[in-house]
Design a protein that fits this description.
The chain has 230 residues and is of the alpha+beta class. It folds into two domains: 76 residues; 145 residues, no CATH class. Helices cover 49% and strands 10% of the residues. The radius of gyration is 39 Å and the shape is globular.
Length: 230
Amino acid sequence: MKSKVISVFGIILVMTVIFFALYHSKSTQNSIQENSSESNIDDSAAESSFEPAQQEENERLVETQKNLKIQKDEHKELTAKEIESIRREMKITLAAMYAAQKSFYSEFGRYSTDLLSIGYFPSDKEVKIKFGFLEPYVPSTAARGEDPRRLDSDQLLASTKKEERWVYEKTSKNIQLGDYRSYCANRCTASDRHFEVMVVAQFRDGSNPEIWTIDDKKNLLQISDGTSER
């Protein structure tokens, strides 16, 4: 009888040990899985936070390179071929404004300082020159929608829809047409019977401005040579 009691007790003891061993093993496995899951979450969070930071850094790098290129281009001397190309653009612009004024005159019997009303608008999105009149001409009877203050490229740009706007390049962006009033033979404005309009470019710092004008008699004149030093 005593032997049977001992045997039963031993069996219970062995089963208890096995139970605790299995329980400990299961707890350890769950802990490992939880730690692994937390680690994956941490890694995902780290990667998630890293991606925007890396993207911002890449964008800053691209912007820096772009600015450096702009600065390099601004200090780059124009070649003779580039200067001739700008002069050609100046002449084409004046010829187009002359034709637009003549067309307006044939309809209204007078000229106008409103570039939009006469039908002139630059075709390029990057403009190397500034152009226009220096004084508005206010007629006794305005055409529909006519605004004499829309008299130069700056005013025209300001009144243009965003998607149709152009940008000035280095040869024109710092130019103020009003600074060149003394170069006009007839005040660079319009009237019922006459008009005079100018275009200006700056080829390099320290040089004279390149200035051309045209009038109602189709006199196309180079008033200042932009390749000569001041």
